[in-house]
Amino acid sequence: MKRIAVFTSGGDSPGMNACIRAVVRTAIYHGIEVYGIRKGYNGMISGDFYKMESSSVSNTIQKGGTILKSARSKEFMTREGRERAFEQLKKYEIDGLVAIGGNGTFTGASMFSEEFGIPIVGAPGTIDNDLYGTDYTIGYDTAVNTALDAIDKIRDTADSHERVFFVEVMGRDSGYIAMPCAIGGGAEIVMIPETITSIEQVIDTLRNGWERSKTSFIIVIAEGDEEGNATQIAAQVKEALPQMDARVTILGHVQRGGAPTAADRLLASQIGIATVEGLINGKSDVMAGIVNSRLVYTPFKDTINKKKIINQRFVRMVEILSI
Amino acid sequence: MKRIAVFTSGGDSPGMNACIRAVVRTAIYHGIEVYGIRKGYNGMISGDFYKMESSSVSNTIQKGGTILKSARSKEFMTREGRERAFEQLKKYEIDGLVAIGGNGTFTGASMFSEEFGIPIVGAPGTIDNDLYGTDYTIGYDTAVNTALDAIDKIRDTADSHERVFFVEVMGRDSGYIAMPCAIGGGAEIVMIPETITSIEQVIDTLRNGWERSKTSFIIVIAEGDEEGNATQIAAQVKEALPQMDARVTILGHVQRGGAPTAADRLLASQIGIATVEGLINGKSDVMAGIVNSRLVYTPFKDTINKKKIINQRFVRMVEILSI
Amino acid sequence: MKRIAVFTSGGDSPGMNACIRAVVRTAIYHGIEVYGIRKGYNGMISGDFYKMESSSVSNTIQKGGTILKSARSKEFMTREGRERAFEQLKKYEIDGLVAIGGNGTFTGASMFSEEFGIPIVGAPGTIDNDLYGTDYTIGYDTAVNTALDAIDKIRDTADSHERVFFVEVMGRDSGYIAMPCAIGGGAEIVMIPETITSIEQVIDTLRNGWERSKTSFIIVIAEGDEEGNATQIAAQVKEALPQMDARVTILGHVQRGGAPTAADRLLASQIGIATVEGLINGKSDVMAGIVNSRLVYTPFKDTINKKKIINQRFVRMVEILSI
Amino acid sequence: MKRIAVFTSGGDSPGMNACIRAVVRTAIYHGIEVYGIRKGYNGMISGDFYKMESSSVSNTIQKGGTILKSARSKEFMTREGRERAFEQLKKYEIDGLVAIGGNGTFTGASMFSEEFGIPIVGAPGTIDNDLYGTDYTIGYDTAVNTALDAIDKIRDTADSHERVFFVEVMGRDSGYIAMPCAIGGGAEIVMIPETITSIEQVIDTLRNGWERSKTSFIIVIAEGDEEGNATQIAAQVKEALPQMDARVTILGHVQRGGAPTAADRLLASQIGIATVEGLINGKSDVMAGIVNSRLVYTPFKDTINKKKIINQRFVRMVEILSI
């Protein structure tokens, strides 16, 4: 392994820069040259490469976003696109790739590696924490803390007024972000895709609370909940309980930004080192992750197909703590 | 003046507790007893009073919300309601009132003071900064910083993707919150009630940017904008420019919470002192404010009827700085 | 088990309130009465007990410090003190205790439990993360993030000036706080009690950097480092390298405060539940902790005597990442 | 005016980048070319110039530090140094300068402008707020909020323990930072250079508090206080009151960093515009500032020689609010 390249793909997440930094410095530490590819697979196809030095990643560990930019690429989904990408890698004499992203990124990487024999090791960069093969994904801890900080602020004002607050958080098809936000934010109700909470149940809980003169509620809703988004759910609740003043907060992309937390910087740094040392040791078609504090390499096909299940302990916790 | 009472009314704002604290300690400093009234005019009517000591406000200066709770009162809008409130004040031998709130609060206070001759001095507690008679209202600086922090996080991710972000901020019928958020957040477009920005103008700006390959935009929208809310505006833009990926953030009540900034604590403390010393000096039917670093008392009728106009310098600044 | 009591002891840490809240609500959930004891063992001796309800812990999960106050008790170190404490427990008919604190707290608890047969389960509440039997202690994640935030701010200014910054962080006799701060803060040097870094090595590194015209450095020092505190180390460096402008930051108790992070709230909530359910299931003389995402009860004598060793992976990471 | 240059000098402050951004974009808006000079007067002497475009300042408004770097220059204090600097300006055909910094910066600028006839307009960039001619300096509001956030965290823990906390904040020879920190942080004592507070007074206050069983105190000390620094004062207090547990926090350069607050971004943007438009309108040897919400140009000799006096209202406020 003489020269590797690194890129970020899909939705960005806080800590991606800390991961890129670790990749670059670990490569240099081991005497390997390293290139950055801008804008994910699109930049790989168009040849948007540049040589990175240790100083290229100075003062980036604390920055949100990704200095390599990111994108979703339709062209890479075609055989022609991947051929063009491989031509670029040959031109730049790249022996191995580090792919930082989520499931979509690894699906592309897996095909690419199989078709063209280029070694690829992945790093789990997504706020959604929905990847099998790692306890936490890079950016997840930051996103949860950002959402929780917003809920804390809402709670300040909730106490003064008789209101129901609906807070929609991210997480694609999972409640990984919603669950700790609900527990840590002291929410009364959490609605996540993994469990069924009907609008009727929500209305019942609110009505019962109202009758016991509890008049302020926080409801955390995962964006992928089966009952719809926060605006839709709030509208149905307002119709059933017109006496309650319902307000909606949609945090949106606020959750993707911000300086990464300490945990995300450490995780990103460890995984960044592991991707490069994995490539050196002949690994490919795998994602580096941390499971039970240990470094683990999981085949892409498992990270893509196996489902990580939210700890049932958390579901029970909401029941106990909202007493 | 032997005994006064203090209450908060209307929407809460960060710094209300710092103001209550200053009222309580200034009263005690001058040998005056002080009562807290819970839940605004509702509590005044129902007699929800309690004696406050210096220690009642210990460790509250940094807290969001209001320890006295707040509410909007329909009953106080009636002559009967106000009579019942006055009965309570007589019962507790209250000689003067400090009312912390916004325009609605002062409208009620003005009527009440006129009808029953009870001296009332107001403190401008609202995040909206829409009160004539003070350069800044208590909570405004905090709300702006909270919204700006959210926009900073969006900007982190905006740089990596080709996207249009619509961020809806509070401010009722004014652009006071939206304007500094747009300038401080480096937004490309700001939509406020005070100026007309049509959907067509927005679409033109985005299309022109897109054609110059500028593909990431932040648009700050004041909740009271004449073109509708962020969700509605985003929908129209998506229809006209389907190639652009538009995302919506609605901060909502997040902006009302959080620890008050240094500026809000100082302002709240100064104004809290001024309300009590105003009562001592025979003032009534006025709001205490700070204009050009000087303490000013403005008649309630002026704070209610006169309009504070957003500095035109700021409108020009957006034009220059978004070059 | 009909009635338990909970107290905090030793240095406070962010998340203690979240743990108290979980203890209170879990007890009530299981039909057990719960008392709070104020000021640790001192309050146990003096009988500073009060009955807690679900509402006693409303709106506390996000608060730093401890609503039960904390203290170090000399009297409890004596047999007489402990006898008086036990009398109080008998008087209040307490069947079991939850002790939230660190090593000193558990040493007292272990003696007390042995002597008087009262069941006690501990919760690891300390920012130092130096307790065997749990991967993380309650408050550790918050303290690290607070220190890291300070280092980020120093880095902003470090880049503009030719300066050496010495930042002293907490951690008693361990480098658990210093290490992630150094890695996450991109520090050039870390000085922790577990490894020997001589002043000469520091001076050499700085001199070599200076000669390669690297002129800005951040050095993170654990308060318990064998070479002295930050002020002492900085003085020695200044003497050897008078051309360098050295500045000292001592964060001190800033690291103990602040709203707990999401991770600390979750950890504290899980452990709080586990302490009560441990008591119910007949456990005593043990601390509840989370190891590899699983709940573990460790005998007090092990948490006190066994040493948790900092992951050697981290020491190597500093070497690679500071390239 | 065809081409101007901008530089930052002296200690950096949050908001300097927002000011540079406004200078660059205002110049371009008016059809003027703009150069950046790196490392203050040192870079002016050595010719470290580069042409800036609108995109040079993209995504910088929220960043702490200064993208132009800063330095203190001994060489510029000599006639020879200034001659060399002027040669560079001639070479680059610079018609006017914007100097962002404090008193030292303006002293140099004033000499330079007089000797060589080059128009210079200054912007007040310092966290110390000690410049005559502006209500607030760029960076002051951010520094105060940073220090206050630290004091809030200390207060969380102060409530649980019997302790005296000494917190040293910046501010050179003035109490501008210490005063709002003390008021906003609810400190019991503030020690600033402008007023005499002897160690004996501090000890008396603590002893009296102790005797009334008030056992937790926060003392804010300005770094330039006549009684010494926090470590020295704490040592004297410990000697006199050995029963009290005294802890020291020295925030140091933490106060110089961080994302600027909304107020600092607005101030920096307004002043940045004003410096360029001042140069266009023939101003020189003046600093742009905001006094009572209005733009004011003050001769350098006044900003250097006249003293801005801390509002006496604040001194009285501490007395009232610490009751």
Please write out the topology.
4 copies of one chain form a homotetramer.
Chain A: E1 3-8, H1 16-29, E2 33-37, H2 40-46, E3 49-51, H3 79-91, E4 96-101, H4 103-116, E5 120-124, H5 140-158, E6 163-169, H6 178-184, E7 189-191, H7 199-211, E8 217-222, H8 230-240, E9 245-250, H9 262-280, E10 286-291, E11 294-299, H10 300-305, H11 312-321
Parallel strand pairs in A: 1-2, 1-4, 4-5, 5-10, 6-8, 6-9, 7-8
Antiparallel strand pairs in A: 2-3, 10-11
Structural class of chain A: alpha/beta
Strand content bin of chain A: 15-25%
Level-1 CATH class name of the largest domain in chain A = Alpha Beta
* Number of beta strands of chain A: 11
Query: What is the radius of gyration of chain A computed over CA atoms, rounded to a whole number of angstroms?
Result: 22 Å
Order of helices and strands of chain A: EHEHEHEHEHEHEHEHEHEEHH
The CATH architecture classification of the largest domain in chain A is: 3-Layer(aba) Sandwich
Helicity level of chain A: 40-55%
Number of helices of chain A: 11
Greatest chain-chain interface?
A: A-C, 44 and 43 residues
What is the count of distinct domains of chain A? 2
Numbering strands along the chain, what is their spatial order in the largest sheet of chain A?
A: 3-2-1-4-5-10-11
Give a short account of the largest sheet of chain A.
7 strands, mixed
Task: Tell me the span between the first and last alpha carbons of chain A.
Answer: 58 Å
Mean pLDDT level of chain A: 94
Shape of chain A: elongated
CATH topology of the largest domain in chain A: Rossmann fold
